[in-house]
Amino acid sequence: MRIALVAEDYYPQLGGVPEHVHNLALQLNSWGHTATVVSSHMGTYPDAAFVRRLGTSRVIYSNGGVSRITTGWGLRRQLEAVFREGRYDLVHVHGGLAPTFGLAAPLAAWQVGIPVVATFHSWFARSLGCRVFRRPLQRILDRHAATIAVSEPVVAANSRYFRAHWDIIPNGVDVEFFQPNGRRPTDALTHGPRLLFLGRIEPRNGLGTALAALPRILARHPNAVLTVAGDGPWRGYYERRARALGDSVRFVGQVFEERPEYYAAADLYLCPTTIASFGVTLLEAMACGTPMIVSDNLGFRSVIDGGAEAVMVPKDDPAAWAGTALELIADPERRRAMGEAGRAKAARFAWPRIARRELAVYERVLGAPPSEPRYVRAGRTCAIGSPSR
């Protein structure tokens, strides 16, 4: 089977969509299919061999953070040419109905007679664009051969405006790449608590809440350290906010292949994100056996679902975050149990399991008989700076 995976968001930008698309391509290719990632140019980046880029990616600010759109002359014609050249059986658009590729890629695929599957990744409280353009967008949605959402909250958000038959297929995690590193729960008391924030540095990801909670934690544990792994337009602002905390806060910039080391070295992963459709970093932390404190939002609820691997705390409440962190730091046994529960849950989201569900949708769309995936090579091939095993 030949599949074009079209994504507005892709490496070098980090996030749930790039992780999903990249790992799905790796898994499908390892089973003998031909999966190509089609994205836009985002500067110089050492891509994997299965990546095609066209147009130029532009950063925009929406929904409390960074998004992207692709610009360029004749994008639809360029997409048509790529789809014809690749002789694809199916086009899978990630970011359904979102400009630019979410709209241009389906039109290009239909022009050359290729069915389209669309995955919706975003949760939003409301959308002026969906309300104003509901009818033309519904007509596009009606032509999709299948529509997928990564979580129930994503279905609920889009169902305010559109009708569709939804398959819910969550994000996955590479449980061979994300692994514990041997740090023991008792190390927090003997060597000092190690706290981690990992994500794009933007307002909706809540770094300000973690920084505001830290003084209360330092009052009890003066040798505690918060490591901030990530980058973004607001990094300088948060660095200035953190100056008063001195060496207790470390900004290490964007990380790629080092992510398992940061998760596994942390006694607690803090994820104070205010808006989420799912929570890929939660799966990564779980796979590393790292206990978590996470914001109580709809996307994270769908992942945690009452599980013992995390404590959910009201967003934007530094006192609650500090109090919960102090309780967990003082209870190594509970943190050990949280880490074990996380690893067990992460196994349910391992990429071979998730990719098989996506493959089943492709087979249904194409009328192909179910296949038993077979590996054609060991390991994985990926771009420099992306996970490898």
Number of helices: 15
- Distance separating the two termini: 25 Å
Q: Which of globular, elongated, flat, extended, rod-shaped describes the shape? A: globular
Taking pLDDT < 50 over at least 5 consecutive residues as the criterion, the unreliable ranges are: 377-389
Helix content: 25-40%
CATH homologous superfamily of the largest domain, by name? Glycogen Phosphorylase B
CATH topology call of the largest domain: Rossmann fold
Series of secondary-structure elements, N-terminal to C-terminal: EHEEEHEHEHHEHEHEHEHEHEHEHEHHH
Structure description:
The protein has helices at residues 16-30, 75-86, 101-111, 128-132, 134-143, 152-159, 187-190, 207-220, 235-242, 259-265, 280-287, 298-304, 318-329, 332-348, 351-366; strands at residues 2-7, 34-41, 51-62, 65-71, 90-94, 116-120, 146-149, 166-168, 194-198, 225-229, 249-253, 268-271, 292-295, 310-313. The strands form two sheets. An eight-stranded mixed beta sheet has the order 4-3-2-1-5-6-7-8, with helices on both faces. The two termini are 25 Å apart. It has 389 residues and is α/β, with parallel strands linked by helices.
Keywords for this entry:
389 residues, Rossmann fold, 2 domains, 6-stranded parallel β-sheet, 15 helices, 40% helix
